[in-house]
């Protein structure tokens, strides 16, 4: 009989009966907390055995698992026919819900890729999503800066166009190339300065370069240089010669390895205090062409096999390329199932290998050392950030005479354009750091015109009504992870702040204090943020209700830096929501007269491209790839926008 004494489940008899009736088949199990939020997703080849194992003697569980079990209020399960189906379902649920007790690839949906578009004159772009649009994708990369640097290098080498379609057509009509042609950063297809074949060759060289095959590029370039010299096109021959030298310089920086010539990734990790850095080496054609570090969270007390399994499934689910060989420090859980999934995704045989000696083992060790060095650097950053936050919170407590450190701070801001599209934002900082899943945004409903004081009162009324009445919600804020689903549960609204910051002066602060008192929350301290005069006598100050003289900060006070950071984040968040509403309104208005574009297609286009400018810059192929769109409708849009 399972021991449920360490859970918060009230009806033990019913729960035990449900555990006994679990199937022995493979599937996925889902744990939820009291607020009905998914807090863990797991898979097993035997659901009954795996789920019951959580509710046995607690001494056999890790402390992380004990904390998980203490928060389980309910569970559900989904059976599958095979273990592979269970793996796929688990991956999709983790991606969708990002449960707090699962090992998660940090910001996994925001990693950038390099994309070669499928167009008459293809472009090379940085993108955040892999779409089934005929484009060729490379990545993911850990940092956008490395993508920008790579595209910059590729453009110098192969001179593909950088302009969008609108700019291309503008120069095409004038039959005159832009300055990038003059500085040899574009082949000038808009002005017929190159043939389709010449441009396609350049794009193919980009693809070969990103695929780790520079030798093929060099062979092609040397043929072109010799041909140009024979034809007495000496300027052209010199240009190609410079390309050859540039490619050779890049090849010199790539580490030549004595491993097998086949393409492979090398993966190793370093971990400390619940965080881990995973280093990925990309080896193509026997050369190390790239190295990217990725951060994992929630790794405390996880076995190396489970950690590696979590990383492989999350990383390669988003990867644009899967090599035939992957070198690892340890085999993951369910190695054969993961290999089977990788093979079905990659379209070829994939082997997970754990080398024990020789060059391949040295390569895995090198990746582990790189991961350890990256983790050391991140640890210093985290430590410095924590120290700065603590100093700032301590100063706020002292200046405002608070009983304790304000561990949770909520900051409110109002934004509008001449009284239209008024919106409010609530950003949350916990322990001095943004808690983006708790951000909220409010569309002002009861206030006409530009009345920040009344708008602020409405926002606070709605927010603190939900501290007691959690059956309603305002629009949940998107996190900085695209498509992530932020928490929108009862618990989020019920957590009260230790301090409220208002972007405004005495009028807004007095109104906020009055609203809080009417709602029964007068015990929560509230202060306003006021900016200094143009001479810089008061860079920032805090205004309490009923006190017109601000509490001033010195220029380098830690409290000032914290307040500035919170205020800037609140303003950014409010403006981004306001701009989104305004852009949607303009977009709908602009698209009203386009034949064949109804409400559903408008919504799909807005979701896909975000703005009118984004739709204008999209190619016909990208527009046609949006769900519900057709090529004819895409051509109508491009012809009228």
From TrEMBL:
Polar residues compositional bias, start-end: 480-490
UvrC family homology region profile domain: residues covered: 266-516
Primary localization class, coarse: cytoplasm
Listed Pfam families: GIY-YIG (PF01541), HHH_5 (PF14520), UVR (PF02151), UvrC_RNaseH (PF22920), UvrC_RNaseH_dom (PF08459)
Subunit structure: Interacts with UvrB in an incision complex.
Role this protein plays: The UvrABC repair system catalyzes the recognition and processing of DNA lesions. UvrC both incises the 5' and 3' sides of the lesion. The N-terminal half is responsible for the 3' incision and the C-terminal half is responsible for the 5' incision.
NCBIfam families with a match to the protein in the record: PRK00558.1-5 (NF001824), uvrC (TIGR00194)
Name of the protein: UvrABC system protein C
Protein source organism: Herpetosiphon gulosus
């Amino acid at each position: 009989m399972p021991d449920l004494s360490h859970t918060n489940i009230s009806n033990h008899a019913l729960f035990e009966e449900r555990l006994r009736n679990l199937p022995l088949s493979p599937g996925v199990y889902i744990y939820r907390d009291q607020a009905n939020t998914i807090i863990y997703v797991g898979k097993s080849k035997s659901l009954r055995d795996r789920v019951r194992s959580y509710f046995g003697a607690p001494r056999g569980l890790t402390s992380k698992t004990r904390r998980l079990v203490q928060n389980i209020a309910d569970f559900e399960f989904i059976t599958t026919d095979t273990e592979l189906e269970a793996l796929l379902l688990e991956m999709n649920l983790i991606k969708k819900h990002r449960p707090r007790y699962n090992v998660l690839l940090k910001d996994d949906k925001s990693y950038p890729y390099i994309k070669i578009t499928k167009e008459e004159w293809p472009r090379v772009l940085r993108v955040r999503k892999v779409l089934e649009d005929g484009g060729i994708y490379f990545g993911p990369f850990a940092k956008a800066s490395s993508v920008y640097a790579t595209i910059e290098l590729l453009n110098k080498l192969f001179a593909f166009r950088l302009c969008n379609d609108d700019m291309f057509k503008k120069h095409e009509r004038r039959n005159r190339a832009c300055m990038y042609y003059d500085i040899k950063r574009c082949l000038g297809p808009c002005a017929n300065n190159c043939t389709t074949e010449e441009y396609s060759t350049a794009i193919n060289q980009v693809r070969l370069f990103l695929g780790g095959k520079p030798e093929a590029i060099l062979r092609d370039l040397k043929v072109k240089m010799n041909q140009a010299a024979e034809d007495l096109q000496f300027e052209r021959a010199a240009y190609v010669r410079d390309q050859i030298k540039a490619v050779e310089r890049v090849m010199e920086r790539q580490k030549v390895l004595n491993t097998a010539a086949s393409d492979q990734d090398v993966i190793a990790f370093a971990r400390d205090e619940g965080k881990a850095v995973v280093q990925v080496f990309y080896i193509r054609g026997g050369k190390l062409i790239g190295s990217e570090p990725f951060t994992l969270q929630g790794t405390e007390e996880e076995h190396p096999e489970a950690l590696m399994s979590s990383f492989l499934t999350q990383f390669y689910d988003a990867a644009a390329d899967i090599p035939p060989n992957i070198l690892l420090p340890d085999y993951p859980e369910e190695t054969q199932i993961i290999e089977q999934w990788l093979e079905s995704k990659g379209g070829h045989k994939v082997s997970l290998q754990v080398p024990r000696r020789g060059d391949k083992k040295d390569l895995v060790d090198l990746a582990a050392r790189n991961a350890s060095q990256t983790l050391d650097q991140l640890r210093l950053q985290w430590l410095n950030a924590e120290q700065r936050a603590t100093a700032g919170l301590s100063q706020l407590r002292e200046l405002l005479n608070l009983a304790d450190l304000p561990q949770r701070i909520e900051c409110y801001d109002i934004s509008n354009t001449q009284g239209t599209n008024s919106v409010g934002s609530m950003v949350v900082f916990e322990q001095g750091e943004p808690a983006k899943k708790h951000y909220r945004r409010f569309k002002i409903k009861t206030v006409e015109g530009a009345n920040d004081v009344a708008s602020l009162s409405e926002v606070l009324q709605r927010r603190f009504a939900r501290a007691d009445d959690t059956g309603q919600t305002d629009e949940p804020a998107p996190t900085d992870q695209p498509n992530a689903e932020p928490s929108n549960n009862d618990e989020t609204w019920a957590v009260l702040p230790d301090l409220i910051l208002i972007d405004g002066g005495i009028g807004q602060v007095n109104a906020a204090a009055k609203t809080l008192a009417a709602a029964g929350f007068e015990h929560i301290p509230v202060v306003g943020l006021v900016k200094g005069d143009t001479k810089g006598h008061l860079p920032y100050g805090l205004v309490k209700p009923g006190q017109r003289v601000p509490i001033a900060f010195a220029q380098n006070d830690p409290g000032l830096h914290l307040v500035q950071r919170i205020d800037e984040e609140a303003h950014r968040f409010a403006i981004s929501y306001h701009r989104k509403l305004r852009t949607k309104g303009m977009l709908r208005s602009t698209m009203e007269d386009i034949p064949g574009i109804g409400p559903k297609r408008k919504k799909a286009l807005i979701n896909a491209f975000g703005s009118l400018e984004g739709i204008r810059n999209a190619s016909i192929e990208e527009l046609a790839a949006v769900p519900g769109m057709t090529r004819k409708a895409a051509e109508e849009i491009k012809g009228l926008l």
